[in-house]
Design a protein that fits this description.
single chain; alpha/beta; 5-stranded parallel β-sheet; 4-stranded parallel β-sheet; 12 helices; 34% helix; globular; binds phosphoric acid mono(formamide)ester
Length: 334
């Protein structure tokens, strides 16, 4: 597999901030190889046969949870779904105790989504099995960032002049990506920022000043620009990632009204008409249709939103394969 020629020697995937460009490309290359498995009539390989993965989700999810379950199953691992509301967490058991008890049953990977930033990092210091971050508070959502990178890489590699087989990009230099909306509350934005910057893309964060923390630019001063004017940015970008307004995380009114937000920052057919014809439109889901994106754009020709979901499965297979797989050399060191 291509990914095996690149560097990967980690038991956990906690964030994209700590990964190198080579490690990011290792996951993307491995995902590229594993994507083909889902097109077979028997969609399974034995790579993780005998391994056990637990989905430890303390927040709701449709895409990520099903995607991780399917990814583990396609690699022949056993999968257990944990529901916080019907577990002993409701009796006051701590996250650490919950995880250590689950691990004591012989689990190889814990896939965790939690409302608290840093929860996966805490677990990784307290268990011996692999820990995969499926979204922690407003901090990071690394597999979402990776599937967004995978979708852009696949799209823009195919746009290169090519012979029979497109050469996959190993750098995003020359690509300009706008991330639009509720950046302050978005773990997707943070993972995208780290991933895009490490692959040398130019990034413009767009939204109301109340939803873009000023200090984000300090992370990658040479890569990040900030704008509050979507109309001036949109015609200059190759891809736009429209973020969900996270009403459940807003602590105060970040904009006067949803109508006002939609007028200034919503991606509409009229706005799209002023963008580059082949603009790639991304959204992590779930969407607030009619707010950050209109239905005609979400379901239109520029949209890669369902491709993102398809690619998410390949990226999560790659993540589990690299972190948990039998030939993972890091296991004995853990
Ligand atoms: N993008 C994403 O994380 O979606 P879910 O909340 O449905 O998992």
């Amino acid at each position: 597999m291509n990914g095996e020629t690149r560097t990967w020697n980690r038991p956990h995937l906690l964030d994209l901030e700590s990964l190198s460009a080579e490690e990011i490309l290792a996951i993307l290359d491995t995902a590229r190889s594993l994507k083909e498995v889902s097109t077979r009539s028997i969609k399974k390989v034995p790579a993780l046969r005998g391994k056990v993965c637990v989905n430890l989700f303390f927040e709701d999810s449709t895409r990520t949870k099903i995607s991780f379950s399917l990814a583990a199953q396609r690699l022949s691992a056993d999968v257990i779904d944990f529901s916080a509301s019907t577990s002993s967490v409701s009796k006051g058991e701590t996250l650490r105790d919950t995880a250590r008890n689950i691990e004591a049953m012989g689990v190889d990977a814990i896939i965790i989504r939690h409302r608290s930033s840093g929860a996966p990092h805490l677990l990784s210091r307290n268990v011996r099995c692999s820990v995969i971050n499926a979204g922690d508070g407003a901090h990071e959502h690394p597999t979402q960032g990776l599937l967004d990178l995978f979708t852009m890489r696949e799209h823009f590699s195919n746009k290169q002049p090519t012979n029979a087989k497109p050469k996959l990009l190993t750098s995003f230099a020359g690509l300009h990506v706008a991330i639009v909306g509720d950046i302050a509350n978005s773990r997707v934005a943070r993972s995208n920022i780290h991933g895009l910057a490490k692959l040398n893309a130019k990034i413009t964060l767009v939204g109301p000043a109340t939803l873009i923390p000023n200090d984000l630019k300090k992370l990658y001063p040479n890569a990040i620009n900030i704008s509050h004017d979507l109309d001036s940015v949109l015609p200059t970008v190759d891809a736009v990632n429209m973020l969900r307004i996270q009403f459940e995380r807003l602590t105060s009114a970040a904009f006067p009204s949803v109508r006002e937000y939609s007028r200034l920052f919503g991606l509409t057919k009229e706005r799209l008409a002023k963008a580059r014809p082949n603009l790639l439109v991304l959204h992590p889901g779930p969407m607030n249709r009619g707010l950050e994106i209109t239905t005609d754009v979400a379901d239109g020709n520029n949209s890669a939103i369902l491709q993102q979901v398809t690619n998410g499965l390949a990226v999560r297979m790659a993540t589990l394969y690299l972190c948990v797989g039998a030939n993972s050399s890091h296991r004995s060191e853990n």
